[in-house]
Structure formats: C-alpha cells, structure tokens
Design a protein that fits this description.
By secondary structure, this protein is mainly alpha-helical. It is about 90% helix and about 0% strand. It has helices spanning about 5-25, 30-55. α1 packs antiparallel against α2. It is elongated. The termini are close together. About 10% of the residues are buried.
C-alpha cells in the first residue's frame, strides 16, 4: 500500500463525508447520495489495500 494511494483513498472518503453532510443540510438527495458513494468507495479501497498488505507479509 503506497503512501499516495493511502492519501488518495482517505481524501476520497473525507470528501464523500463532507458532500453527504452538505446534501443533508440542504436537503439535496443527489448530493447526499453522491457523498455516500464517494465515502463508501474510499473506505472499500482502504480495506482492499489493507488486505493486500496482510497477505504480503
């Protein structure tokens, strides 16, 4: 798991969390949905990288 990928995945999850909260605050369902998918995608990528690391050692 390279440092660049780790940072990229964490930023994606963080961006998704912010977008989701903005969507909730403005009652914009599209933004909320988009934020949720970004957050989940970033978290899944992080989990995949962690699993890869576990098998490399």
């Amino acid at each position: 798991m390279s440092t660049g990928n780790t940072i990229r995945n964490k930023v994606q999850a963080f961006k998704g969390r912010i977008t989701q909260r903005v969507g909730r605050g403005t009652r914009n369902k599209r933004l909320e949905r988009e934020g949720r998918t970004d957050r989940m995608s970033g978290n899944l990528k992080q989990a995949g990288d962690k699993a890869k690391n576990a098998f490399r050692r």
